[in-house]
UniProtKB/TrEMBL annotation:
Classification via SMART domains: POL3Bc
Identification of the protein by name: Beta sliding clamp
Locations listed in the record: Cytoplasm
Keywords, in A-Z order: Cytoplasm, DNA replication, DNA-binding, DNA-directed DNA polymerase, Nucleotidyltransferase, Transferase
Source organism (scientific name): Kribbella lupini
Amino acid sequence: MKLVADQQELAAGIGWVARGLPHRTSTPVLLGLLFCADADGTTVAGTDHAMAAQVRLNCQVDAEGTCLVPGRMLAEITKLLPPGPVTLTAADNRFVVRCGDAVYSLPLLPVAEYPASTSPEEEHQTVVDAGEFALAVGQVGVSAARDDVVPALAGINLSFAGESVELASTDRYRLGIARVGLTSPVEPFDVLVPAKALGELSRAFAADGGQVLLSLADETLLLRNHDRSAWVRTLSGPYLPYRRIVPDETPISATVDRIALRDVVKRLSVVADGMTPIWLEYGVGSVRVYAGSGDDASGAETLPITGSGDSLTVAFTAQLLLDAINSFGTEELTMSYTGGRKPAVLTGGQDYLHVITPRLLPQA
């Protein structure tokens, strides 16, 4: 096999696939990237059994062939090479990389031991805008659990129905719900996918622009566009009934400048370290945001608001509040309540809402 490719395009393609490779495994061939070059072009693929990725390289094929190369090492080499054409050659059980005067040689891995790829029958195919889908995944993913003690809580539930898909995720302390339109109606179906993997994949497809094809096949969610394809193994469901967490009515609401609130919470987080709460005290036309009291470090700032309902004082964990604010990209943020000890609903004019549980503490 012999290929010639541009260094930047090569590094980007190889780097993306290599990021999904395992760091440690009892199956050494899974540390490799599978190159396949033929008359139809060249692809690079990798898998760790939980997810897989494949990208088509824009390169010149001088000699066809298939080989398996140590993935992370190759990714680092191609990333650090100078700009220009790069020649890749596989022969005599070696993989040689040449760029100008630079020459690197890597041992090949046994292709025969690499897991065979299968093409299960796909169902429930639909198409979404790649950018809108990645935005929704990023917003909802904030609410997913950071560990897999309860695997379902580390996932994002995708509920397809009609002309939209609803994405939801919760770690029991917060909940994110977003909706994205589909290009054509689909029959209802749900799928639960690991949040971290889906976030990484959706960002890559969004960078390509255009649309992404989603389909379900043999307990895997597949994503595909013209040059890139990937699958991620689904989690067992069904997902918990998350809509019950969202209050039916929120008679108290306040709209505030999102960036200003974010900056205030950031500053107060300096004194609200650990489990020290950040308090929001709503009054007529303003909200006083403060943290700390007594002999401890403390701080307070006041922001203008517009809103309706009774006065209210509520406490939140600093990091959860900051994560919630940062999950929005709007200029303004509306925080709605049924009371100081009930879940708060955050909205920002997008097809996305975030529910956050307050700290149940006596007022400072």
